Structure formats: C-alpha cells, structure tokens
C-alpha cells in the first residue's frame, strides 16, 4: 500500500444540513492549494453529492463506477480550482447512501493507490449522524465541526459529537463558526456548544475561528466557483485563508506508515470489514 509519507486527513462535518459545510471544504481546499499543498477533496455525501455542482465540474464517472469495478479512483478524479483534485460522489442514488460492508471496503481500498498524489485529503461528509458519516469522521485524523448561530445547528452538532464520543471513542474536535455577523457572535456560538458538551460529555473542543456572513459566498455559489477564487478579497475569502493557515500548522501523524494507511484501515474497521 502506498501513502508512506504523512498525509493530513481532515473531515468536515456538522450534523445539520445547510451550515455551509461543503463551502468550507471547497474553500479551505483551494486556500491550502494556494500554499503549495497537493489537495484532494472527497465528496463523501454518497447519496446527495454537491461538490461537483458547487464547482460546476463534471467527470462523467464517480465513486459508483469505482464500486462497480468500471473505473479506478484516479480515473474519476477531476481537476478543480487552484489545482485541487476532486473525487465526485453520485447524486440521487439510494444505493450509494446505504453502502454495505463490501462496497464500503471497496471505496476505502481504492484510496491505497493515491498516497503519492496528495499532501492533504479533505473529506466533505453528508449531514446527519448516519454510520457512513461517523465512519468517515472516525477515520480522519482531524475533525472540523461546522456550526451556525441557529439552535438546531448547535443541537445537531452536539448530537454528532455525542455519537462520535460514545460509539467511536473520539474526544477531540475542532469547531468553526460559519456565517456569523461578528467575531464575537462566533465566539459566543462556540461557548454555547462548549457549555453543553462540558456538562454532559468528556470531550475537548478547540475553537478555530469564524467565517463571516458574506454576500460574496452566495454570488460565488451562483457562479459555481469557490469564493476564494471568485472574490479573493472578500471577507469570507480572507477568513478561509486564515483558517487554511491554521490547518497547515496542525500536527501530522507520527506513524511511519503515514496517515493515509491509517485512514484506510480505520474506515475498513468502521465498516466492520476484517
């Protein structure tokens, strides 16, 4: 298996849909690529893919073709903005949203060939707390929980953290406040989440900052571009670059086998595959 060098694997998740998770994934990926990192972005929303729609890209093939044995993972990767590579998922395919153990292992096994092609793997998970979501998150080295200033977002983020803590024995999470009006609002939002987790769970949350509410993000989505590319001087783009700089400083795994193997092995274990 390749992937012997340390590779940063970051899962971006949030529990609730509509918190801007995919925008975070895309823009952090592009910002890291601007720093010279080789970045692969995996759309892990296996039933409702949207990274390709967000970026206006099309591959013709996707993960479903890999599962069917009709393509290799490197065959379906498509170039994205800033030189990133995107692994698209299929959209509207119920089978993809409910993968069995064999299929899950098939996806994971396909990653073994990509270790020499990336420095960072960003995994954009589906919303919710399904087994597919928790499998991807528990396998990643870093978890970024995206929250917005809505009661349902905080509640769902807490539910996700609780499941990951209880079922996957995870106890460390990074938190990003998205679409906030002021930096203080972001900090207050984080404090709300910490207040609940400190009371009921034995976990550590680290605040990594906020991304402001910015009309440029909506305009970029309409143009099917990353805001960091379409409006590089916008407040949101500046915030994403700041976040990417922090991500780049997070420690890499110390295992000599490299984190891509760790990611693969953990995913296979999560799928219940020996």
List keywords for this structure.
single chain, 274 residues, alpha/beta, eight-stranded mixed β-sheet, 8 strands, globular
How would you summarize this macromolecular structure in one to three sentences?
This protein has 274 residues and is an alpha/beta fold.
CATH topology descriptor:
Rossmann fold
Q: Which outline best applies?
A: globular
H and E string: EHEHHHEEHHEHEHEHEHHHH
Structural class assignment: alpha/beta
Uncertain regions spanning at least 5 consecutive residues: none
Mean pLDDT rating: 86
Rg (CA only): 17 Å
| Distinct helical segment count | 13
CATH C-level category: Alpha Beta
Assign a percent range to the helix content.
40-55%
Tell me the CATH architecture: 3-Layer(aba) Sandwich
Tell me the total number of β-strands.
8
- What is the count of structural domains? 1
Straight-line N-to-C gap: 17 Å
Keywords: ATP-binding, Nucleotide-binding
GO molecular function, one term: ATP binding
GO cellular component, one term: cytosol
Protein name: Site-determining protein
